Amino acid sequence: MIIGIGTDIIQKARVKEIFDKYGNKFIDKVLTQKEKIEFKKRDNRKRKIDFLSNNFASKEATSKVLQTGLKNGITLKNIEVLRGENGAPLLSLKGKAQKKALSLGCKNFFITISDTEEHSIAFVVGES
Predict the structure, then answer these.
(1) How far is CA 23 from CA 19, 20, 48, in A?
(2) So what's the pLDDT on residue 73?
(3) Domain ranges for the chain
(4) Which pairs from 52-55 meet CB under 8 Å and 24+ separation?
(5) CA atoms of 113 and 125, how far apart (whole Å)
(6) In what order do the strands lie in the sheet with 2-11?
(7) Contact 68, 74 (CB under 8 A)
(8) Which H/E stretch holds residue 40?
(9) For residues 60 and 76, what is the distance between their CA atoms, to the nearest angstrom?
(10) Are 6 and 69 in contact (CB under 8 A)?
């Protein structure tokens, strides 16, 4: 049974602007340790911005599935989005995000991410 759905779209230029202004402070606020490792593997600035934008949209979409948004103690770092060997996104929750998912009866998550030159969009479904 579907517990919740969430989607988010973000302008890459906005993410680039924030990254240019705050640099590692932004990275530290948004990415988990494992995500930082994946981020550093990106071989040029454009691919780094793509990764940041895609992950940010994914985290926002996931927070909508949890029916909280990014508040009530749920942070961007409570939601981790990595890539599998085939490049497919893998979603995992930590801390308060994981507790909220369990309280909703949400055990499985499905995520898809798409992007263009200008935008990143993510769609997440949570089910029991």
Answers:
(1) 5, 6, 12
(2) 86
(3) 2-127
(4) 52/15, 52/19, 52/26, 52/27, 53/10, 53/12, 53/15, 53/115, 53/119, 53/120, 54/81, 54/89, 54/113, 54/115, 54/120, 54/122, 55/30, 55/31, 55/81
(5) 12
(6) 2-11, 119-127, 108-115
(7) yes
(8) helix 33-41
(9) 8
(10) no
**pTM of the complete model:** 0.94
8 A C-beta contact, residue 5 and residue 14: no
Cβ 113 vs Cβ 58: under 8 Å: yes
Query: Whole-angstrom Cα distance, residue 25 to residue 21?
Result: 9
3-state helix, strand, coil in the chain (%, to 5): 50, 30, 25
- Which tokens go with 4? 């919740």
What homologous superfamily is domain 2-127 in, according to CATH? 4'-phosphopantetheinyl transferase domain (3.90.470.20)
For residue 31, which of 46, 48, 43 has the smallest C-alpha distance? 48
pLDDT tens for each residue of 34-76? 999 999 999 999 999 999 999 999 999 999 999 988 888 899 9
Mean pLDDT taken over the chain: 96
